Amino acid sequence: MDHVIQIEQMSYRIKGKSILKEIDWTARQGEHWAILGLNGSGKTTLLNIINGYIWPSAGSVSVLGRPFGTIDLRELRTAIGWVSSSLQGKLYPSDRAEYIVVSGKYATIGLYEDPSETDWELAESLMEQLGCAHLKGRTYQTCSQGEQQKLLIARALMAQPKLLILDEPCSGLDLFAREQLLEAIETLAQSEGAPTLLYVTHHTEEILPIFQHALLLRRGEVFCQGKVDEVLNSSLLSDFFERAVEVVEREERYWLLPAKGDAIET
Questions:
Q1: How big is the chain by its Cα radius of gyration, in Å?
Q2: pLDDT for residue 11 is more than 80
Q3: SS3 breakdown of the chain: % helix, strand, coil, rounded to 5?
Q4: Which residues contact 58 (CB under 8 A, 6 or more apart)?
Q5: pTM of the predicted model, to two decimals?
Q6: 97 contacts 140 by C-beta, under 8 angstroms
Q7: Which strand (E) or helix (H) includes residue 18?
Q8: Directed axis angle between helix 175-189 and helix 145-157, to 10°?
Q9: Comparing C-alpha atoms, which of 262, 260, 255 is closest to residue 203?
Q10: How far apart are CA 161 and CA 15, in angstroms?
């Protein structure tokens, strides 16, 4: 399998409105991608299509080497982990941290199966890898938001997915919790047998060096795609955001600032 995601001339319309328009995008094995776009750009719709929750109106989609229309999408989803803050509100707050993690093997809210010893060992290993092993025995509701996000990532990894989607995982985190979570994600990406990662964000500074490719979506269309160091520059992002911005690079990460003299609208 050379292509993890292969999308050709894909569009999605609902009630006569175009949400995604003629998307062409290929993510190959061994590539980690960042997906950047403002609210309303079509990021969530794209993720729902990749996961097989909605069907494209036109074009072709293949995920993990499996063309849509030839596979059971329920089976495909077992190979995809999707971490979204929307999941946090669905979990049982009184469940212990390790229960949250191990339930990922069964894709259930709550634990209704009897996990094997191997399952518990894997859950503990994933918690250790993500720097949250100390949460064992704690209830989910007593964990900080950053700690909860680490548990959700560990939960997604229980099924040993080949593709892991991190959907704005740093949303709502303070600076220090964000950096701790990003450090855990970087460690994960560099580990042996790590899945292909898609990192969805509004913020360029969250795009770690491990994400060497970026897809920029604007109003349902691919504005551009390519290597991060070629895409995240002041000129291109000024065009993308339709206002003058300045990109400051530091340690292979990119901070976005309003360009000097460009007034901030209120």
A1: 19
A2: yes
A3: 35, 30, 35
A4: 9, 10, 11
A5: 0.89
A6: yes
A7: strand 17-28
A8: 20
A9: 255
A10: 34
- Comparing CA positions, the residue from 220, 170, 201 lying closest to residue 46 is 220
Q: What are the structural domain ranges in the chain?
A: 3-84+162-258
Q: Which two tokens stand for residue 93?
A: 């707050």
> Cβ distance 158 to 104 under 8 Å?
yes
Strand partners, 23: 10
- Which pair of tokens denotes residue 173? 């985190």
Q: Which amino acid is at 261?
A: G
Phi first, then psi, for residue 3 (nearest 5°) are -100, 120
Token pair for residue 71?
Answer: 């596979």
Give me 103's structure tokens: 């339930």
Residue 266: band (very low, low, confident or very high) from pLDDT cuts 50, 70, 90:
very low
Q: What is the pLDDT of residue 109?
A: 65
Cβ(35)–Cβ(232) under 8 Å? no
What superfamily would CATH give domain 3-84+162-258? P-loop containing nucleotide triphosphate hydrolases (3.40.50.300)
Contact 53, 34 (CB under 8 A): no
Written as one letter, the residue type at 148 is Q
Q: Where do we find the tokens 């206002």? A: 243
75 — pLDDT class (breaks 50, 70, 90): confident
